[in-house]
Design goal:
heterodimer, A: alpha/beta, Transcription Regulator spoIIAA, B: 5-stranded antiparallel beta sheet
Chain lengths: ~120, ~130
Amino acid sequence: MGEFLLVTIQIDMHDQMALKLQDDLSSAIVKNATRGVLIDISTLEMVDSFIGRMVADISSMGKILGAETILVGMQPAVAITLVELGLSLPGVATALNVERGMVLLRQKIDADGANVTEL
Amino acid sequence: MSPNSKGEAPLRSDHDIVLARQQVRRLTQELKFSLVDQTKMVTAASELARNALIYGGGGTMEWEIVSVDGRRGLKLRFSDEGPGIPNLELAMTDGWTSGNGLGMGLTGTKRLVNEFDIDTKVGAGTRVTIARWI
């Protein structure tokens, strides 16, 4: 995927594993000069406040390191539950699936590039 | 499954939280909860299991298939012997967190279930009981 990183979460992660993923991902962003990160959670059957916070943190961390993050593939039941829980994931961009996420990522990065040129 | 089926699981590690989630998923599936209701109950269990571990220093999850007036449901009780919650009213305020969470903990969890009861005493621990009906 070149400048993009695709992270697919396929298992029910325990908390330490989620924190490790956060660490590994920030290292990978720096190492590969990643411009965009896609986190695919289409197989996750549950997102609680801990996983939600991890995703929000990855998104803010990525931004500081120069990468845009898009969360893709959230199951409808997970979305309904998250909203009821009160977790609206502010600052986290989302897309329906990996394909649309890629398009959105491309747009965001191109827009950033345009802003830099204007300056 | 008999209507009064019940059991208990320890909450001593991160891994136990995962096991508790999986147990609740299995139970809600056996009870034929809708997918959304399964997800709500599993998420509520995950939040409370983590609370028992992080704030209570570990504890247990008891589960019970209950039947009231012909209505079936799942009851879960999370118990710990931790420090208890000194200001329950504050802890039940939306957006409140003691520092580790997103402030969704107890109030958010309450919204995911049909019944929510909390019993806490400073120095003696906390017991949260939730239920969801089919």
